[in-house]
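Entry type: protein chain
Record version: 2
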Amino acid sequence: MLSKRALFAATFALCLSPLAALSASAAPKLVIEVGGQASGTIVIDLMPEVAPKHVAQIVALAKSGAYDGVVFHRVIDGFMAQTGDVQYGKAGSDLSLAGTGKSDMPNVRAEFSSKPFERGTVGMARSNDPDSANSQFFIMFAPADHLNGQYTVVGRVEKGMEVVDAIKKGDAAANGAVTDPDRMVKVTVEE
């Protein structure tokens, strides 16, 4: 028979084990330092349980420094802010090509889910091919039900939505193309 002390210790250990498992499996966060007209920090809770391959790609690109200095090249007021073109979205590149490039990593097959595109949702940009997502992503200013089930949701803004709202908007007549765009100065991952 267990003593009261041993029973307490065993019960305490059982209570702690789910907490340890939760913290060990906590989803990574993408931390974006924004510079330009908008200035501040955006923290995104990534969702590996929803889109594991896309999240892994974003994390790898962020850890390699690929996102550092990349502009928000397409920003449509009331819709979304798009960034992540690591090929053509950096200073010294022809920014008129921003939005057409990708990383050296392979494209990722679609991981569509039932997660809705709401204010603060982060989704992967792609071409007409559903399996063409690579490095570019967008952050929603407002809900957009027409994207549900058509684009991969990878996360949600946890902090800094006011920074997202302040990102310089693009020309509506030019599909949101931005002159002198804001940029992601530094992008890191918290795990």
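Comment: The helical segments are 4-24, 52-64, 161-166.
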